[in-house]
Amino acid sequence: MDGKRPRSFYVLAAFFVLFLVFLYGPTITIAILSFQGPEGGLTFPMRGVSLHWFRDLFQEQAVGDIWGSFRRSFALGLMVMVTTVVVSVMGGLAFRKRFAGSGLLFYLIITSLVIPSILISLGVGLIFSQTGLNVHWASSGFGAQLTWTLPFGLLIMFAVFNRFDRSFEEAARDQGASPWQTIQHVVLPIIAPSLIGVALFGFTLSYDEFARTLLTAGSYNTLPLEIYGMTTNVTTPVIFALGTLTTIFSFLVIGVFLLTVLVLGRRRARQGSDAGKGMV
């Protein structure tokens, strides 16, 4: 072989670069425009370079409630994340054994993924209003978003438990562990990386969800709704600065979850090494 790469390699490389440009180009464009000077507008060419619009974000806004909506989205994301993890683990454990109606229940769970999100939002909002319940981001919005995050979490847990080696549980029971001790000290530590993945799915899907929150948030907007409202009445790069900060926040969240997975992996490797030395 002469070491030359085939022409298809360069074609695929060019296609991949174009894909990255298409994927991250809009985000990079918004980030660049957010650093415009005080006289800057919403389009190129840029008029100066400064942090003016980032400083403007932390001042009292004439339009909208940016930081209030951020706090609501963050709190809602945490609520959805915890609920998704707990219910997904319980559902995964339940579906390890066949029971009457399990197939029908499975298809009912994933049906919400193919129903248009706006219809889910409309239906949940109508149920709450017709039953006299308060349409609020922490109640109806929470329920609507769970119809989006739970199917993903359950599908991940179904795949995890389908590959789970039950001999670990049998060994724990042979040592006298109770069912709860087996789950707590054997099952959960083994599937911990997958649980972190489910948690990341739950938080991020909730944090940026728009359609299912549109008719269920009540009088207080979440961050995606607030940003959408700003697009109709904000004519300065402050909205780009907000987009840049929320993007950075999203990457920080992903980084925290990945770091957690790395720490757990190293801890398990260290514990395995210590156990091996003890046996020697």
List keywords for this structure.
280 residues, mainly alpha, MetI-like fold, 12 helices, 72% helix
Residues in helix, %: over 70%
The number of helical runs is: 12
Q: What is the CATH first-level class name of the domain at 64-233? A: Mainly Alpha
Distance between the ends:
49 Å
Quaternary arrangement of the chains shown? Answer: single chain
CATH third-level topology of the domain at 64-233:
MetI-like fold
Low-confidence segments: none
The shape is globular
Q: Say which CATH homologous superfamily of the domain at 64-233 is assigned.
A: MetI-like
CATH architecture of the domain at 64-233: Orthogonal Bundle
The secondary-structure element order is: HHHHHHHHHHHH
| Rounded average pLDDT | 87
User: Total strand count, please?
Assistant: 0
User: Which sheet architecture does the biggest sheet show?
Assistant: none
Description:
It is a multi-pass membrane protein. This is ABC transporter permease. The protein is mostly helical. It has a domain at 64-233: MetI-like fold (Orthogonal Bundle), CATH 1.10.3720. 72% of the residues lie in helices and 0% in strands. It has 12 helices and no strands. Helix 3 runs parallel beside helix 6 and helix 7 (167-174) runs antiparallel to helix 8. The radius of gyration is 24 Å and the shape is globular. It starts with 6 loop residues before the first helix and ends with a helix. The model has no long low-confidence stretch (mean pLDDT 87).
